[in-house]
Automatic annotation (TrEMBL):
Family affiliation: Belongs to the VHL family.
Protein name: von Hippel-Lindau disease tumour suppressor beta domain-containing protein
InterPro entries tied to this protein: VHL_alpha_dom_sf, VHL_beta_dom, VHL_beta_dom_sf, VHL_sf, VHL_tumour_suppress_b/a_dom
Top-level lineage group: Eukaryota
Domain von Hippel-Lindau disease tumour suppressor beta: 12-89
A Pfam family annotated for this UniProt entry: VHL
Amino acid sequence: MAEDCQVADYVLRSEHSLYESFVRFINNSDRKVDVLWVNFEGRHVKYKTLPPGAFFDVNTYATHPWVFLDSETQDRLVVKSKEVFLPEPWDVQYQHLRREEFPPRPERTLVYITIPVYTLRQRSLQIVRNTLSQPDDAFKLELPSSLQRELAAMVKGSIRSQSIAS
């Protein structure tokens, strides 16, 4: 999946780092989740699709952002109520210990992927989107044109992600 990840004038992307992080992504939702690394150019790189309840271990770096999408709808999922997960260096959890007290090998940080609390508007649009088969179907609904355009874009995104997955 090659998608830009940009917020306002800031492009979210990985940066070079020496600080390793060892994480376990756990799908704590009832949806299939695409685990995506945001690369050095700000593009999403799909690492894995996790079924509900599954986990995936990854060795990454503290400056490497990760995002999570519903595999079928491309809706954003969250970790600790945030859409972007930035790992911490593996030794942060041992800062209170002396170096000789560190475990013989790093322990993985558990990262639980969940469904966000959607606004009523967001959830309503998702439900309506799931009933439409083509983007043009949105313009047949008796809704304000701004909602029709938004629904059409959502349907187009869902169709595109389904064709990429096939």
